[in-house]
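Lab notes, practical 5.
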Amino acid sequence: MVNLLNVDGTISTHELCFALLRLEQPINHSSIAVFRRFINMYAGGSNDLFHNHKSQTAYHFRYPLIQYKSLQGKAALMGINEIGVQALLDLLSNSEFREICEISMGQQFAVTEQIRENLQLSTGRKNQYIIRRYIALNDHNLAEWERNQGLAARVRLLENCLVGHILKFASAVSWQLPPRSLQVEISDFSCRYGRQFGNPFLLFEVKFRSNITLPEWIGLGKAVSHDHGVVESYGV
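Output from the prediction step:
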């Protein structure tokens, strides 16, 4: 990790390793919970990264390093940092998991991509992203959202939430960003009510610009291990 302002405007860099395990299994967002249960039949007992449970009633309050996703209509797992990558490799080495996948999806049931990406925070370039099914607001922020009906106030609130969630991701991958260096500008958003864990939430789709590079498909916000808050670049 580097925190030195370079001639090209780079403030900080961080090398991140992550992996994508794509299965030849069609899936939509509403079936993510079923997908999680299937994976945890083979991996959850030995590695709590796959479910974040301490016990039947207690949870790890941490950024999920294993994230379940529907990518281009297919089931996928994202493993973040060396520990998340290794967890996916261990899952693939499980003979029972491989056998059931080969029976249901064929011998070429999965494609694994291991990626090392150099993330940057800079003063100049603004990267464009869209985040979907983003659960941005906790109870406190939801109350503030409902009090402030003005568009400008709501945009500021959403921008602050995005900054906080990006910082949480950076902290989880051991990337310490200089104070007040992260910039986020929202260009458009829409929202609707949805449900997760039996509770109603506002689900946002937000287009934004930022001076940070984010990995494709990374999750931000609440319930990112359940295919919420999925980030994609656009306009590149």
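Observations recorded by the TA: Residues 151-172 form the longest helix (22 residues). The helical segments are 32-42, 81-92, 95-105, 139-147, 151-172.
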